[in-house]
Protein 1
Amino acid sequence: MQWIPKPIPETELVDALEQSLGVPQLIAKLLVQRNITSFETAKDFFRPSLSALHDPFLMKDMELAVKRIQKAITAQERIMIYGDYDVDGTTSVALLFSYLKTYLDEILCYIPDRYTEGYGISQKGIDTAKEKKISLIIALDCGIKAVKWVDYATDLGIDFIICDHHTPGAHLPAAVAVLDPKRSDCSYPFDELCGCGIGFKLIQALQHHFGQPLEALTPFLDLVATAIAADIVPMIGENRHLTYFGLEQLRMHPRPGFQFFLKTLKRQLSVSDLVFIIAPRINAAGRMDHGLNAVSLLTATTLEEALPIARSIEFFNTERRSTDERITEEALQQIVLQEAENKATTVVYHPAWHKGVVGIVASRLIEKYYRPTVVLTASGDVLAGSVRSVSGFNVYDALVGCEASLLQFGGHKYAAGLTLEPEQLEAFKSAFEAQVKATITPEQQIPSQRYDLEILFSEISPKIFRIMHQMEPFGPQNMRPVFVTRNCKDSGGTRLVGKDQNHLKLEMVDTDGVVFSGIGFGLGEKLLRIKGQEFFDVLYTLEENEFNGTVSLQLKVKDIVFKSDQTS
C-alpha cells in the first residue's frame, strides 16, 4: 500500500485559524486541509443548518416540475413514482411517495425488476403506467439517458419528470422537466447531490410552493442521509447539512422500517452504520427479491407493519452474503484458469451468477487484484454486469471508449453498469483492456491511502478527539482524519487477538517515549517482526475503545511498514 501525504497546509492560514477559533494547532491543520480557512467557513462546517440549503428553484426546470405536479394535484391525476432498485432509488421513491400521499389519492410506486427489466426506465414500467391510467411518471435516480422511453411514454399520453444525478448523454430526454445539476445548462451551485437528494430538492420546492415551512421536512432526512452514505457522494456542501440532520433524525426518531436493524446498536449511530448496517439490507431486497420490498419497508407507518418486511429483508441479506462469497471464489478461480492475473483489467463471466451480487463481487475481486473490474452474468438474451474502479481512475470514461461493443452503460467515475451482446464479450474484453492500459497511471495500479498528518503520540488527547468528533459526518472529501507516526517499537504488550488469531492488539512506543495502544485487523502476520523489536511506521485513525466500563482512546491501525523494508 502506498501512503500518500496530503499537501502540508500553509502555516499562515493555520496560525490564523488556530487563533480565531481557539483550537489546537492539529485541528487547525486538519481544517485548512479541508479548505476551511476562516471563522465563517468553520462556523458553517461545525454548525450545519437547514437554512444553508440552496434555493431549489436555482435548479434548471424546477419551476416546470412544480407546476406539473401542482396540475396533477389539482386534477387528482394518477401518478407513478419510478425509481432504481438500489438504496438511492428506493429511498427516493419512499421519500416522494410519503410526501405526496397527503396531496394525491392515486400514487403507484414502481421499481423495475433487476432481472427482467434491468437498470433505468423500462418499456414494462411505461406499459404498466398506461394500463393503470397513469398520466405522469416522476423518475428518481434514473432516466437521464432514457430518451427513447420518454418519447415512447409521450406517444402514450404520459408525461415525465426526471430527477437524476448521473451524467447526461449527448441529448436530454424530452420530458416536462429534467432535474439534474450535472446538466451543462444548469447553474445550480452544488452538483454532487445523490438521487434522493434531488428528490428532496423537489419536495423542498413543493413545500415552498405550498407555503409550508422547510423544518416540516426533517422527518424525511433519514432517507436522504441513508442514500448519501450508500451512494458515496462527497460529504461536503448540502450533502453534509442533509446528512447531519438525517443522522439526528435517525438517532432520535427512526422510522419503523429502520428500527429493527438498529435495535442492537450500542453506540451512537454514524455514517459507517448507514453504509454497513442499513444500506446492505435495503439493497438486499432488490438484489435477492424485489426492490419494492424496500419501498414498503421505508414507507411503513407502524412497527407492526414494518417488522415482517424487515425480517424477510434480513433473510435476503443473509442469503446475499453466502451467494456473493461463493461467486467471489468462483471468479477468483476463473482469473487463475484464464491466466489473467497480470492483466490491467479483470473481466469475468458466468451465465449462472446471481445478477444481484455482481457489483459486490467486483469490489471483492479488487481486494485481490487491484485493477478496474467487470463482473458479468446472463440477463435474458444479453450479458449484464457491474463495473468497479480503483482510486483515481475514471472507469466511466474507459467505458465510453468501449461503446462500440456495448448495448448500453451508465454510472459514475468509480462504479457503472453495462449490457452487451454475448458475441461481443471478447471484443469488449480487448477494448476495455486496451482503454485501461492506455490511460491508467502507475500510481493508480497500487492500493493507496492518503493521510492527513504525521504526528507524535503526545499530540493525541481526549480534547483533540472530541473536536474531531464534531467534524462528522465523515465521507468523501471530508474523510475521517488519518495519521502517521514514525519509528515506533513494541512496548512489550503486543499480541494476537481474534477468533482466528489474525488481528493485532498493539502496545507501542514512539520516539518521545509515549506509549499508545491500537488494534490492527488482519495484521497478525506482522507480530514476529514487531516482537523482534524492529522499528516501524504506523498508519491509523483514532477511535474510542470501551472495555469493562472504561473508555479510552486507541489507534485503529490501517497499515504497518517496517523501517528495514524502506531502506533495503
Protein 2
Amino acid sequence: MQDNLYFCIMLDCKHHIKMKPFVRRLLGAAVSVAVLYSCASVGRLEGGPIDEEPPRFVTGSPLPGALHNKKSKISIEFDEFIKLEKANEKVVISPPQVQQPEIKANGKRVVVNLQDTLKANTTYTIDFADAIQDNNEGNPMQGFTYTFSTGAELDSMAIAGTLLDASNLEPVKGVLVGLHANLADSAFTTLPFDRVGRTDSRGQFSIRGVSPGKYRIYALMDADQNFKFSQPTEVIAFNDSVIIPSMERRMRQDTLWRDSLTVDTIVERQYTHFLPDDVLLRSFKEKTFSQRLMKTERLTPEKFSFYFTAPADSLPLMKGLNFDEKDAFVIEQTTGRNDTIHYWIKDSLLYQQDTLRMSLSYLYTDTLNQLVPRTDTLRIVSKVSWQKLQEKKLEAENLIREAKKAITDTLKVQEKEILFTSGGTESNNTALIGTALANRRAGKHLITTGVEHPSIYNTMSFLEEMGFEVTYLPVDHLGHISLEDLEKAIREDTILVSVMYVNNEVGAVEPIEAISQCIKKKNPKTLFHVDAIQAYGKYKIRPKKQVSAIVCQLYKRTEK
C-alpha cells in the first residue's frame, strides 16, 4: 500500500523549529514548499488589539547621514516586521540608477542593493514614500527618506511643487520630476537627470539632497526608464525659470500637552524651510501619429525588444557593432505587425554580454511628415546581468537541493519522491485531477469528506462535471469520519480516497493509519491522498511507515 499513499504538505518554519537554518531562510523568503503535493495555506491565530502604528526606524548601515560611504548595499532596520508595497513604483533613488536596484524586505529590515557604481562626492537619497508597511495591518510609514554621501559633505536642500495635467488641471500621479544642472535645453534629451523625485496622488513632489546651484526642472513620464526625454510620445512638463534652491529660518507654533485632553502651553520653535516649495508644472503629451522608435527594452539577458509608435511595412535592419547578428535571433511579433518586435537571442555566448551595441535602420517620420530612412546607434543594457542571474539561479538551486534533503530526512522518504509546486491549490489540483484522469479506465469513483478545504472540495466538484462520481463522507460531532462508512463507500471502481490529516478549521485529527489500512483491506488498488499541511511540524509524519502501523479493526475497537 505504500506506493498508493500521497501526502500533501506545505512547510512552515513556525511549526518545525528543528529545521536547519537554510530551510528557515528559504521559508522566511516566502517560498512555499510542497512534499509530493502541497495544500492550502496555514491558518494563523487571531486576537489582540488592532495595530494602528506604522513601523519606526531603529538603525541602518550605513548610518543615516553617513559621509565617505563606499557601500552599495544599504540595510535599514525597523522596530517590527515589515513589508514593501509596490517598491519598484514608489521608491525613488537619487541620483537615478540606470540598472534597477534590488529592494527587498527581510523580517524587520529593508535591504537596498544599488547596482550602479557609486558616484564620488555625491549625496544619495532613497525616498520610500509610503512603500514601507508593517506586516500585520499594513500601516504605512509616510515620507520616509534615507540619505548618505560618498564625499565629505551632505547636500540637504530640497525643491518641492505640484504637477498638473495641462488639459484639465488635475493632479498627475506617479510622474518622474528631475533637475538638470546643465541649463542647456538639449540636456533634457541627451543626459539623465541629476536629481529626481516622483509625484504622489495629489500631484505633489519633493526632490531632496540638492546641492547649491542653478537648475532646470522637468517632469517626465519615463516610458523607457532612461531618465531623459528620448521618445516624443512621453508625457513631459517644464518650467521656463531657472531654479535656485535656498533655505531660510522660520518659526512655527508647537502645542505641548499636559495629558491627552489638556493643553499645557504653546511654544514657538525654529526650523529650516527649503525653497522653492511652490514650483508648478503642467504636463502635456505631443499628439503624433508618426513613425518613431518609442523605446528599447532588455529585461533579461536572453531577450530584447523594440517598440515603435506605428506599424511599418518591413522589419528594421540591424547591424551588430560588438556581435555578429547573422542567425543570432528568433524574432517574435506579438501584435502580428512591425510595431512591437521581440528578439530572442539563440547564442548563449551572446546573451552573456550585458551590453549589446548595434545600428538600427528603420523608416522615420521627419519634420515634413515624410517617411525617410533613419539609422540610430543603440546601446542596449540588460536590466539584470548574466553573471548575477546565474548567481541567483545557482543560489536557488542550492536552496532547493538543501531543502529537499532536509525534507527527506524529516519524512524518511527518497528525494525522487518529492515534488515541488507553487502552492496549495496547484498541488491539490495536480494530485486529484492527475490521478483521476490517469486512472479513469480503472474506475470513476472518488471518495472524500464533507469538511475538506475548498482546494479539495472545488476540485472534486470539477471532476464531477467531467463525469466522475464522488462520495462525500459525513463527520461526527468531533469532526471525524466513520471507518465503517469509509469501508462501505469503497467499491471496485474506487480509484482515489482523499482525507485531510488535520482539519484547518476545527483541528480534528483523522486516523490516517487506520484509514490507510481500511483502504488496503477493501481495495488495494485505490490511491490514498492526504492533505497534511496542518499536521506537518505538529505530528511525526512517516508516510511509508504509517501505512502499516495500525490495522483497521484495532482502531474500531478503540473508537467504541
Protein 3
Amino acid sequence: MLNIKSVYIYFVAIKIYLSKFLKDIYFQSNFYQNKLIEKKEIKIHFIPNSYLLSSFTNNKKFEFDIKQDFTNYLLTKSSEKKRFKQIHNFLWLSLIDRKNDGVVVRKMIDEWIKKFGEFKNNVWEPSLTSLRVISWILNADLVLNNKNIVFKNEYFKIIFAQINHLKRNYVYEENKMLLIEVLTAIMISGIVFKNHFHNYEFASDKMDKLLDNFLDRDGFPLSKNPKHIVKILKYLILIKECLKDAQYIIPDYLEEKIKICLRNLASIITPNKQIPLMNGPNEISLDIFLDYLKTFNYKLKEDKNTAHNVKKLKFKKDTIYFDTNNPPSRSFSNYYQSGPLSFEYFHEKNKVITNSGFGSNISDKATLLSRLTSSQSTLTINNISTVRLEKSKIINKAFGYLIKSNFSINNFKIIDENNFAGFEATHDAYKKKYNIIIHRKIMINKSTEDINGSDVILSTKVNSNIFDIRFHLYPGINAVKTMSGKGVLIQVNKNKSLLFDADGCKIDIEKGLFFGRNKIFNNYNIFLKGKLTKEKEIINWKIRKKIDVEAN
C-alpha cells in the first residue's frame, strides 16, 4: 500500500514523465533549435590542456578501435549503456594520437554533427551532453588545427547549442551529482571562450549553492556514497585548473570544497587504492587519479578527526572500515545499500571481508539484490532488509529505487583502552517490526593482532526470531571449515591464512554473489545462523592470525 509520501512522489513522477514527453516534442522543433543558436561571435580565449581530462579517462585505451568503424558505432543502441556512453561522451578524444589523427577526428566529429547536431533524446541527455561538451572544449586543439573556417564555425555552433540546452534545462534536474556535471560544462565554456564569461558567472553561483546542499557540514555527500567524493573532486579540480590556466581568480568556495573533499578522500582510501564498498560504489582503481593529484600538487593528508560516518581503524597490517551512516534522506537514497554497521577488512593490501558492491551497471535485479542487507557484511533478522525500497515502477523509473523506511545509528564510541582498539555502535532498524536493537563491537587486540567482534541482539520479547550474520569474502579468497566444524580457514593468499571462529551459533560457508566489478562474480561468505532464545543474545566472533588447526 502506498503511504502519503509515496502517493505524493507517485504524482510527482507522473508529472515528470508528462513534462519530459512534452519537452522532448518541443526540443525537436525548429523553433527550439533556433533558440539554441548562439547570437554572439564565438572565439577561443585560450586552449586548455587536454591532460586535465586524464582523470576521466584513466589513460586507458578505448575498448575497441573507434577510428576503424565510427559510423557503425554511432548506431549503437542506448540500451547498450556502457558502449553507448563511451562513444557519445567523446572522452576518447584525449586518447587519440594528436599529431597524426587530427584529420580523422575532424571527419568523425563532422559525421556526429550531421547525425546528432539537433536534439536527440538519449544522445542529448544531461550527463552525456555535459561530458561531450567538456571533452570537445578541452580537445579543441585537434579541431582548430585546421583551415576549414566553415567546420570551425559549425564546431563552435554545436558546442554552444548543447551548452544553451543545458542552461535552459538544468533547473529541471533533480539528481545533484548530475547537476554538478552540467554546471561544470557551463562553467568551462565561460572560462575558455571570449565574450562568454557570463556562462561561468551564471553556473558558478549555482555550483556554490548546490555544493552546500549536496555536502553535509563535514563535507561528505548526503547520498552517503563515497564514490561521489571522487567524482566531485574530478569536476572541481578541472574547473580550478582551467581557471588557473586562464589566469582568472579562483573563488573561495571552490578552494574550500576541494580541500575538504581531499581530506575526506584521504580518510577512506583503502590499502589497495580503492574506496570502501558502502552505499553505492563499485570498485574503482584510484592509481591514475592519485598520480593526477600529485601532478597538479594536490595533497592527500588524512585528518584523524574527520567526522564523517565511514569509520576507519588501522593497526599495523590491518585496516577496518565501519559503516555508521544513518540512511540518507529519501531524495538522496537511490544509491543506498542497507548495511548498517557493516564492515570491510583488509590484511595488508588484501581485501578479506567485503560488501557486495553496487549492481546498477548489471541489471535492475542485480541492483535490488546488491542493496539488500544480506548482501552486506552485517546482521539480519529473519533475512529481512533494514530498509524497505519503493515498489512503484513509475517512481523507480523516475527517481531510482528510493527507500521507504528509515532508522538511526546511535551510541557510536571509539575504543582505545588497555590492549584493545576499535569501535562500537547500535542501530534500531528492527525495533519497529521486532522490538530488537542491534549492537556491534569490532576491536583489534594489540598484542595478538586478532580481530575480536561481537554482535549483541537486544529484544524486549523472545519470539524465536532467526538471526543471520554474513561475512562476505572477497572474490578469489577460498574458505574451508575446520575438522571440528567450529571454525573456518580463510586462505588470503598462498602465504597467508586466517582462522575465523564464533561462539553460540551455527557456522557455515555458503556461496555468494559479488557485484562490485560491473559483472556478477561468485564468492564465498561465512554464514552464522541462530535462533533468539533470550532477551540478550551475544554472538562473539574472532579472526585469528595464528593457525593451529587442520582444515577438512
Protein 4
Amino acid sequence: MHRIDRIVCTLIIFLALSATPSSAKQKPAEHIWLGTIITMDQKQPIAEAIAVRKGEIIAVGDSSSVLALGDRHTEIIRLEGRALLPGFVMAHEHPGISAVFGGLVDISGFTYPRMVDAFDALSVVVQNSEPGEWVYGIGLDPVLQADFSPPTLAKLDSIAPDNPLFLITQAMHSFWANSKALEAAGITQDIQDPPGGGHYGRDEAGNLTGFIAESAAAAPILKNLRKPLRAAGRLKTVFHELSASGITTVASMGFNPPPWLAKWMAREHFRPIIRQVVYLKTDELSYLPSSPDKGTAFYRIAGIKLWHDGSPYTGTMDIHDPYLHNDVTVSMGIEEGASGEPLITDSVFLSQMLQFDSEGWQLAVHAQGDASNEAVCQMFQQLGRRDLRHRVEHGMLMSPKVVQELAALGMTASFHVDHISYYGDALAHSVLGPERASQMLPIRSAVQAGLRPSLQADSPMFAAKPFHLMQTAILRSTTSGMQLGSQETVGMLAALRMVTIDAAWQLHMDHIVGSLEVGKRADLVEVSSDPLKTDVQNWNNIQVKAVWLDGRQLRP
C-alpha cells in the first residue's frame, strides 16, 4: 500500500510540473529590440521593446520586462533614434509583370520627359538588334511626356523596318505595334475585337493603326513575353527590390508565373525572402488548388482576379459622364463623348462571381469608374454577406453610397493612390475635370465606413514604395503641389494601418503578420526615423535600414 502511495505521489508531482506555465520554462529570446516600437496593435500602439525567438514574437512591452527574457547569448538591438515597424504588406502588385517588363527598353516619362528623346533611345536599341529580333519598349506616357503624340504605324515602321516593335504605355492598358509585330502575331485587317474587352485602333478607312487597347486585344503579342523562363531571373530581382522597400508580404494580382517558379525565385539559400499571396486570372485556373486555403505561410493562392472595366488613360474606365475632350485625351485614344464601358457583360461577370464565391474563393475585382463600381456593388449584393473579404481593386471613382453598401457587405477595397501623386494634375485638368478628380479615391470615407482599405502602387505601373504611398494618402498632393480632395485625407496611423495590419487582414493573414503582437511571426522593418515624429512632407525620404522575415535578417 505504501509503495502504491509513493507511485501516486510521484505521478501527481510529475503532472504538476508538466502543467507549469510555459513562460517559466521559456528559452531565452534570440533577439531583443530597444527603442521606438510602432506595433499597429490598438491595445498597445507604442512599445519600448520587443523580443523574438525562433521567428516568433514572444514579448512586447517595457524595456525592463522584455530584457528579463534575454541572456548572454541574446542579441540586443538598440534603435537609437530609428524605429521598428511591422513588415509592410502590399495587397495589390504584379511581381510577374514587373519581372517580364523589367527587361524591356525603358522609354518612360520618368526617364525621358520628352517623347522624342525616348524614341531616340529606342532607335539605338533597334539599330543594335538583329533583324527579325523583337524589340519591346515600356513606359510610353501621354501624361508625363509633354510632347507626346500617338505614334503612327508609319513612324513605328520607320524606327524598326526589320524588327517587330511593341510599345507598352506606363498604365499598361494600351499598346502600339509596328507592321512587323502585327504580322508576326497574326493580327490582320480582318481581326475582330476580342470578347474579353479592348479593341484594335483603325483609321477612317478601317485599316489598323498599330494602336491596341487592353491586354485581351494585345494577348497575341503578350503571350510571347509571358513565357515563364523568360523572366525567371528577373523575378528574383523583383522580390529583392520589394524587400529592400521593407515589404515582407506581397499579393500578386494576375499575370502569375507557375507556382513552382514563384516559390523557387522567392528563395535565397533555400529560405524564403518574401511571403506571396496570389490571385489568379481566369486563364491561370490550371494553378488553382482543389479547395481554398491550401498553401503555406510563404505561398498561398487566395482567390481570383476579375476585371470589370479598364483604365482612365485609355477611356475604358466605365464612368457615368463622358471624359473631357482635349489634346491630352485625344492623344490617349479617347474619342469625344466617350464614357467607357464594361470589359465584360454583367451576366457573364455575375456568373463568374457566383461560381468562385460558391467555391469559397476570395474575389478581387478590378473596378475603376463610378458606373463600374455601382454595377459591381449590385452584383456583390446578389452574393450576400460572407466573410470572404471580397475586394474592389483601384476604386478610382466610388460614390459614398457604394462605399457604404460595400461596407455593409463585409467587403474591402485596395486604392491605387499613386493616381493622385503622378497623374493627379492631368486627371483634374484634362481627363476627368476638377470636381470628379477631387472626389476620386475616397480613402477617408472607406476608413470611416469600416472597409479597412489598403494602399497599392500597382507595380510596375509605379514603384512599390510604402512611404510614398502613405505620404500621398495623407497629403493627397499632386506633382504640382495641388491638393486633390482634402476631405479624403487620412492621418498617419490610418495610413500605416493600410500597409500593415489592414492589408494583412485583406489577405486573411492578420493572425500571423501585420502587427507586432505576441504569437505573431517576426516580420519587421527598421526605418531611419520615427514616422510619427517626422514631418509628413518628408515621409518619402524615410529610409529602410533593416528587414527581418520570420525572425531572420534579410538586409542589410
